[in-house]
Design brief:
Structural class: alpha/beta
Keywords: Leucine-rich repeat, Repeat
Distance between the termini: 59 Å
Number of domains: 2
Protein name: Leucine-rich repeat domain-containing protein
Shape: globular
InterPro entries: LRR_dom_sf (IPR032675), LRR_domain-containing (IPR050216)
Largest sheet: 8 strands, mixed
CATH superfamily of the largest domain: Ribonuclease Inhibitor
Helix content: 10-25%
Order of helices and strands: EHEHEHEHEEEHHEEEEEEHEEH
Oligomer: single chain
Strand order of the largest sheet: 8-9-10-11-12-13-14-15
Organism: Paenibacillus amylolyticus
Number of strands: 15
């Protein structure tokens, strides 16, 4: 079965358009009550099942599906959604059932138990997926060819498929911008710099960059003010610019130094004392939504007092650095739930952070 994956799930207007497309192209869709609730289904799950009751074709369990697959080959269901126990509901595709799907969610990732029934999938005649969702893994795709996916992308803005042409970075970035993806992973393109065009990704919420030759983050990078999760992996980042303070929606910031995607003969990471990432700018204190801050393999020796402004921070990992002891600012951040400095995890009490001397 040929499938083409999506980088991220269609959302808002794109979600509505693809639901209409799927309702027209297929006869059945599937959702799952995973049955994790001890008694009755969660309230909203029950409400959705009730709304869809007029369009119900059948309900079966995983055990019943296995029996059907063994003895009734022509009637089997082979969907990505079928990976655990639960009640599997099959509905007919009609404009009315499609309207329920559009009313109850704004993207396929919303179909996540227990908030909603799990893993909305649309089925082909043979029982395989025409469109699949595995929401808790962030996996989405369609049982179509790359050519069909490319044509569908042209018709429906926001539908961002993983295509072979994306092996060329310019094509990849062009499509990412055209479809205004909210998630992007730039890995293994052998880039030496991040192009300024990245500023055009105005809807971007999650960005991962794994490019060992990238040593600087351009000003355009910090115009991505919708970012909530940022991961940078490179061999030697020259530093974190003061403009980091503009990314005020960030919840997770992760930086790995000494990283190589393509390990060339003889390559090895620089010693920590030669790395150019040696301090955090005071503007890090502007990231008041930050929950997780992790920096691994750097030349950092001390932490700025502005770190204390991060009242929502729960996890602080500054490992494989040149920090000695516990900085005073960290000792004052009693709300932290986990701290690891230079490879030494520190236990936390409810009252205050223990210093290394207290641990000893």
């Amino acid at each position: 079965m040929t499938t083409v994956s999506l980088y991220t799930d269609p959302r808002e207007n794109t979600y509505d358009q693809i639901i209409d497309e799927l309702i027209e192209k297929t006869d059945r869709f599937l959702i799952v009550d995973r049955g994790y609730a001890i008694d009755d289904p969660p309230k909203r799950v029950a409400q959705v099942l009730e709304q869809l009751e007029p369009y119900l074709i059948e309900v079966f369990t995983m055990d019943e599906a296995m029996v059907r697959e063994r003895f009734m080959y022509n009637n089997k269901i082979d969907s990505h959604a079928m990976y655990s126990s639960g009640s599997y509901y099959i509905y007919s595709c009609t404009p009315e059932s499609g309207q329920v799907l559009k009313q109850e969610a704004t993207r396929f990732g919303d179909w996540l138990y227990p908030s909603l029934p799990d893993d909305l999938c649309f089925l082909k005649e043979d029982g395989s997926d025409y469109f699949y969702t595995v929401a808790h893994e962030g996996m989405y795709g369609m049982g179509i060819t790359e050519e069909e996916a490319s044509k569908l992308m042209e018709r429906i803005p926001g539908l961002f498929f993983k295509l072979q042409r994306h092996e060329q970075f310019d094509c990849f970035l062009d499509d990412a911008i055209q479809h205004q993806t909210d998630r992007l992973n730039i890995t293994g393109y052998l880039l030496s710099e991040i192009p300024d065009r990245i500023r055009e990704l105005t809807q971007l919420k999650e960005l991962e960059v794994f490019e060992q030759h990238v040593s600087e983050l351009p000003p355009a990078f910090f115009e991505l003010t919708a970012l909530e999760k940022l991961t940078i992996m490179t061999a030697d980042l020259k530093g974190i610019p003061q403009d980091i303070g503009k990314l005020t929606q960030l919840k997770e910031l992760t930086i790995y130094g000494g990283s190589a995607f393509h390990v060339e003969p003889g390559w090895k990471p620089k010693p920590k004392h030669e790395l150019e990432l040696r301090h955090l700018p005071a503007e890090i204190g502007n990231l008041t939504e930050l929950v997780s801050l992790s920096i691994s393999y750097s030349g950092i020796r001390e932490l700025p007092p502005e770190l204390e402004n991060l009242k929502k921070l729960k996890l602080l990992n500054i490992t494989n650095s040149l920090i000695e002891g516990t900085p005073d600012v960290v000792s004052r951040m009693h709300w932290l739930e986990h701290v690891s400095l230079s490879g030494h995890s520190l236990g936390l009490s409810e009252e205050a952070l223990l210093t290394e001397e207290e641990i000893e």
